[in-house]
Design a protein that fits this description.
The protein is α+β, with helices and mostly antiparallel strands. It has 3 helices and 9 strands, in the order αβααββββββββ.
């Protein structure tokens, strides 16, 4: 008899413990379907190739059109001095581009991904300078859909070794 009442009390205590834990967590949120998973984006790959072409041709104004003019844009260049976080609207300065006009940027393993209003590109392009020198670059671009137009909000480039 004593053993049965002990088991009953143990189950009751466990039930109370579980119910009190559920109350402290709160109610379940309303069910919502998961958003689509990030997917490859030919549009961002195309916009990145547009950037490469504009830079290769030395068309700073054309390349600047691909960059956001919204506050928060960040540029991190190849050297330690190239770290710009100014948020005022402006064109992209020539020193923000890591190639001189007349150089050619050849895409490497370009991967472009979009996820609703944001996207990113990672690539290992080769930059062929006018003097024939080749630089192997690691490049990351973060894109944001601004009113239906993909714009670069962050870029980082470093020389691959």
């Amino acid at each position: 008899m004593l053993k049965g009442s002990f088991q009953t009390r143990s189950w009751l205590a466990l039930a109370l413990l579980c119910s009190s834990s559920a109350c402290t967590i709160g109610p379940e949120p309303d069910w919502r379907p998961m958003p689509p998973a990030p997917a490859r984006s030919e549009k961002l790959a195309e916009r990145t190739r547009e950037l490469y072409t504009a830079l290769s041709l030395g068309q700073v104004d054309r390349a600047s059109l691909l960059y956001s003019q919204e506050p928060g844009r960040v540029f991190v260049g190849i050297t330690g001095n190239e770290f710009k976080t100014a948020s005022e609207p402006r064109g992209v300065a020539l020193d923000e581009f890591f190639v001189e006009p007349g150089s050619q940027i050849v895409p490497g393993d370009l991967i472009a991904i979009a996820d609703r209003e944001g996207g990113w590109v990672v690539d290992r392009p080769t930059v062929r300078l006018k003097n024939g020198t080749e630089l192997h670059i690691r490049l990351t671009l973060v894109w944001r859909d601004e009113y239906g137009i993909w714009k670069i909000v962050h870029s980082h480039a470093s020389v691959a070794r």
